[in-house]
UniProtKB/TrEMBL annotation:
<keyword id="KW-0805">Transcription regulation</keyword>
<dbReference type="GO" id="GO:0003677">
    <property type="term" value="F:DNA binding"/>
</dbReference>
<dbReference type="InterPro" id="IPR050679">
    <property type="entry name" value="Bact_HTH_transcr_reg"/>
</dbReference>
<feature type="domain" description="HTH gntR-type">
    <location>
        <begin position="1"/>
        <end position="66"/>
    </location>
</feature>
<dbReference type="InterPro" id="IPR000524">
    <property type="entry name" value="Tscrpt_reg_HTH_GntR"/>
</dbReference>
<dbReference type="InterPro" id="IPR036390">
    <property type="entry name" value="WH_DNA-bd_sf"/>
</dbReference>
<dbReference type="GO" id="GO:0003700">
    <property type="term" value="F:DNA-binding transcription factor activity"/>
</dbReference>
<dbReference type="InterPro" id="IPR036388">
    <property type="entry name" value="WH-like_DNA-bd_sf"/>
</dbReference>
<protein>
    <submittedName>
        <fullName>GntR family transcriptional regulator</fullName>
    </submittedName>
</protein>
<keyword id="KW-0804">Transcription</keyword>
<dbReference type="Pfam" id="PF07702">
    <property type="entry name" value="UTRA"/>
</dbReference>
<dbReference type="Pfam" id="PF00392">
    <property type="entry name" value="GntR"/>
</dbReference>
<dbReference type="InterPro" id="IPR028978">
    <property type="entry name" value="Chorismate_lyase_/UTRA_dom_sf"/>
</dbReference>
<dbReference type="GO" id="GO:0045892">
    <property type="term" value="P:negative regulation of DNA-templated transcription"/>
</dbReference>
<keyword id="KW-0238">DNA-binding</keyword>
<dbReference type="InterPro" id="IPR011663">
    <property type="entry name" value="UTRA"/>
</dbReference>
């Protein structure tokens, strides 16, 4: 039996199981499918690269955990600071500081290099697993007395509106593929250079002033985005 056929048999086996469920041993699978263990192992290697199974040393091979899905739909009046996705999301601040913008970030936020910024790094957790690392930069003069707790309780955008009278009006967000570095891998609990999604968002108020710049790294093995498309049938 060719490896592609073995891979397809294994795919069918995975589809009949729940996310995170352990698969039979290699010995049992090779007997059930009728294939040599080296060929079976090679097919499992490919499925692991495809993100369909996860190997855990000393425990076995498991079907991959379910992916957290975010629908990419037009924005509404109800913002959420975390992407509106499935599951119960919570955040934990791991770094909170005030720092000069410097040349690069000053250009990004359209302030002078010496302008003070609030710099916050937090971890987003869903289903008890770390899902994303988010670094938020806000001009200090917009939120002069803010503390780390302000980034953990409720909507940050709502806090901007009600406490600081800063109203987010528009944002540009760019998404691109990347891989995790050493620190990101440690915080997210994934291997070095794991696939990830990079989000960069610049938010402005109604006067066009930049009020926030955020850079986020989301796990590529657990997070996906769904786009909703609408076709115009009146044109060719």
């Amino acid at each position: 039996m060719r490896r592609t056929e073995v891979k397809e048999r294994l795919r069918q086996l995975i589809e009949r199981r729940l996310p995170g469920e352990v698969l039979p041993s290699e010995r049992a699978l090779s007997t059930e499918i009728g294939v040599s263990r080296p060929t079976l192992r090679a097919a499992i290697d490919e499925l692991e690269r495809d993100g369909l199974v996860v190997r855990e040393h000393g425990r076995g091979t498991f079907t991959a955990p379910r992916k957290i899905s975010q629908d990419l739909v037009p924005a509404t009046g109800r913002e959420q600071y975390a992407p509106p996705a499935e599951g119960d999301w919570s955040s934990r601040v791991i770094d909170f500081a005030t720092t000069p913008a410097g040349a690069r970030l000053g250009k990004r936020l359209e302030v002078s290099p010496g302008h003070q910024l609030v710099a916050v790094t937090r971890i987003w957790v869903v289903e008890e697993a770390p899902m994303a690392i988010e670094r938020i930069l806000v001009p200090r003069d917009l939120v002069p007395d803010i503390t780390a707790a302000g980034f953990e309780s409720g909507s940050f955008y709502e806090l901007l509106r009600t406490r600081y009278e800063v109203v987010p009006a528009t944002a540009v967000q760019v998404i691109e593929p990347t891989v995790t570095d050493t620190d990101e891998s440690t915080l997210l609990g994934v291997p070095l250079h794991s696939p990830a999604l990079l989000f960069e968002r610049t938010t402005r108020d109604a006067d066009g002033r930049v009020i926030e710049y955020t850079r986020s790294i989301y796990r590529g093995d657990r997070y996906r985005i769904t786009s909703h498309l609408k076709f115009d049938h009146t044109s060719g």
